[in-house]
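name: query_chain
kind: protein
chains: 1
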Amino acid sequence: SKICKRVITKHINKEFINELIRCFLYFPSKNIFIRIKELLRHEFSKFRYYYGLKRILCKTENPSERILFYSYWLGPGSSAAIRMKIKLRSKIKVDVISRAHGSDLYQYAHTSNYLPYLKQNIKKLDLVVPISDHGFNYLKLLKHTPKIKLARLGIIDFNTNNNLPTRNKIFNIISCSYLNSIKQVHFIIEALSLIDDIPI
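structure:
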């Protein structure tokens, strides 16, 4: 109720009304209230990020000729950065880049089949950075998609050879992934099963 009150009293605009209408157009129709709830949460989070960006920019004594906003997720953070870009465009050059993973990119992955402002944000971003081939190809199918650059998660091969980081002479590997098939965690286990010259 607090989120509803804040959004309705402070942040209703044409963009929000259009997105609210879209909530009624997605299927299945029985999830309409879930979609409205997700939209309100997104809107609330977007403005929290937006006001945070505003405070940071107010404290910047010598703004540069160009600002780059980078969002790790294609969600409320991206929406806030895009809104800030629109506000500043007459004063300074602003670019907005966002990564795209899975739950923040694929509407069909959600019960409600809906992600607030997804297509609108993708059109307004200067660069979208998916982490997989599937995400890259999915974005290419969307109309009016900006520049896309594939950048997988992970680190470069530091060629450590036998100088592996160890604890108690055992090489430890940790994965923080959810254990579902799309994360392909089983490949870690399969790769490690091929190593027999060091304790893991």
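note: The two ends are 51 Å apart (CA to CA).
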